[in-house]
Amino acid sequence: MTQKTNDNLMKFDQQHIWHPYTSMTKPLPCYHVESANGVYLTLNDGTQIIDGMSSWWASIHGYNVPALNQAMQVQASKMSHVMFGGITHTPAINLCQKLVGITPAGLECVFLSDSGSVSVEVAMKMAIQYWHHQQPTKKKFITIRNGYHGDTFGAMSVCDPDNGMHELFTGFLAPQFFINAPSVKFDEPWQNSAIQDLADTLAENHQHIAAFILEPIVQGAGGMKFYHPEFLRQAKFLCERYDVLLIADEIATGFGRTGKLFACEHAEITPDIMCLGKGITGGYMTLAATLTTRHVAETISNGPSGVLMHGPTFMGNPLACAVANASIDLLMTSDWEQQVAGIEKQMQQALLPLTEHDNVTDARVLGSIGVIETARSIDLAKAQVVFVELGVWIRPFGKLLYIMPPYIISQAELETLCGVIKQVLDADIWVK
Ligand SMILES: *Cc1c(COP(=O)(O)O)cnc(C)c1O
User: Fold this and answer.
1) Catalytic residue among 138, 225, 236, 278
2) Judgement on whether residues 315 and 373 belong to the same structural domain of the protein
3) Does residue 153 form part of some domain?
4) Does residue 7 lie within any of the structural domains?
5) Are residues 128 and 266 located together in one domain of the fold?
């Protein structure tokens, strides 16, 4: 591509195309990616950079994976899409069999949708419909602060109330119950006081609460925090005691990211409803799933409406299901547990000592997620340029510098990622 053609493309992009959370008048710098292979993104000037983000948790096997490419090609030559109303197909059946098989015991009924946010909307609808004819006062949700569940309105209503969304959409967003985020970190000694706020709020308001929704163990986009599994175990217990359904949003944590196949396994619980997305297709296509128990599914189905009130046009898209099947097969036949444990160990050694640095307030690692919390806010535009110059793709936000690389990353590549993180702490990446 000539320089001029590229300049024209980039100019159109700046003037006409929104990127996630961006302005049309002050667009952030944007990089033109031409292709991707393994853990490398290739920019259109030929530069190769190591992807530390797995395209936001999704590309667990890296890019251009032969088995996944083949699954898509084979499926495309048979049927890329067909409506799911009144029609079914093997890719969807196989996928739902696999999901029921690998998720915590008891999750048996699957609703397929197109994105994580939609799978959260579906989970919330399930909870409302579950209570509708049993106890119609149960119409609200309870959740923990610092949470993130997506960008659609139902999901937004249970995102952290102080991150800007709520203020902007006040009057339109459903008011929900918020409790303090779990105060005990993943590897700290457990303290019962950490569950008090949940216990009190449920005791007082349970007649109005349909479900407790939270991200198990890892709070992702709301702060990259890892909390104690005992919180989740006791939350499950309290939900049962107060007749509140438990929704586990495993969209970021699912498929091995935290060192367990699903983060709920850290607490050995089965939620009533589980949301999956992101890594489900190995980052190839957009797809999500909401799983629930036979009991919840039957209660909804025996209600006055008789049906679950949702049905997206691209529900169960065969191409997405086919590549999800291939991705799950690849994961389950790989030694992902060792890979993730190896990444965890290497990141512990490379990142945890950085707490000594003046610009760092905390460093933490869980599974293949490494997080540095900085003392000052990071200027994204500045930082992005520095990272690309140093050969990596890392996208910080606020005071969080974090990586969650594809599981196939080599030791040397991970060393580069961690080395660059160390290096930029002394670079000019800070908000003035
Ligand atoms: C990314 C994410 C979502 C939203 O998924 P989309 O596919 O972006 O709609 C919801 N919950 C969690 C925990 C996520 O990380």
Assistant:
1) 278
2) no
3) yes
4) no
5) yes
